[in-house]
Every structure is written in structure tokens, then in C-alpha cells.
């Protein structure tokens, strides 16, 4: 049984990144844009798709897109914030002077 890889795309009209599996919307990450800053506010995976790691796939793709666009990231969404804490390669996207507000001061990466 072959399963299609999930696809992540930015949907600027709805201000969210969307993840689809076999053409079905499986989840999304809402954001707001202010100049060169993207604020992630909410991430949701449909309950019928939970447990497949799709939230991580979605957030990784959204953060990669933010990096490619040269945007700073403000992770108001707890899921995005935890993802960055667990993947310190994305910490540089959060402005250094804003990291403490998100409890991303670098201590998580050391432990």
C-alpha cells in the first residue's frame, strides 16, 4: 500500500500554511505578516490525521519558507515554539531580543 507524501503550501489568501495528504486538507498553521516578520499563531492537525508527524512536517516547511523569504519568526503558537526549542537550527529565525519572551533563550538546546 503506497501513501502519497504530504504536501505543504502557503495559502496567503487565508494567511496559513496548509498540509494535504492525498489531496485532503490535514492541517494548517495560521500566521500574520508584518513587514519582514511572520508570527505563527495557531497550528492544527485534523484528528483523523493525528499521530503521523504531520504537525512537524508542516512546521518545518513553514519555518523553511520563512527562512527562504528572509523573515524573522515570532512563535506565539505553542507547537511552533516547542518545535523550535527541539530543533535549535531554527532558533536563529527568532530575533535574539525576543527569544526570552518565548522561553527560547538557548538553554533548551543545551540540554
Quick structural gist:
With 111 residues, this protein is of the alpha+beta class. The protein is 25% helix and 32% strand.
Short descriptors:
single chain; 111 residues; alpha+beta; 3 helices; globular
Counting DSSP E segments of at least 2 residues, the number of strands comes to 5
Q: List unreliable stretches of 5+ residues.
A: none
What fraction strand?
25-35%
User: So how many helices?
Assistant: 3
Q: From N to C, what is the helix and strand string?
A: EEEEHEHH
Strand order of the largest sheet: 1-2-3-4-5
CA(first)-CA(last) distance: 39 Å
- Mean pLDDT, rounded to whole units? 93
The percent of residues in helical segments reads 25-40%
The outline comes out as globular
Main beta sheet, described? 5 strands, mixed
| Rg estimate, integer Å | 14 Å
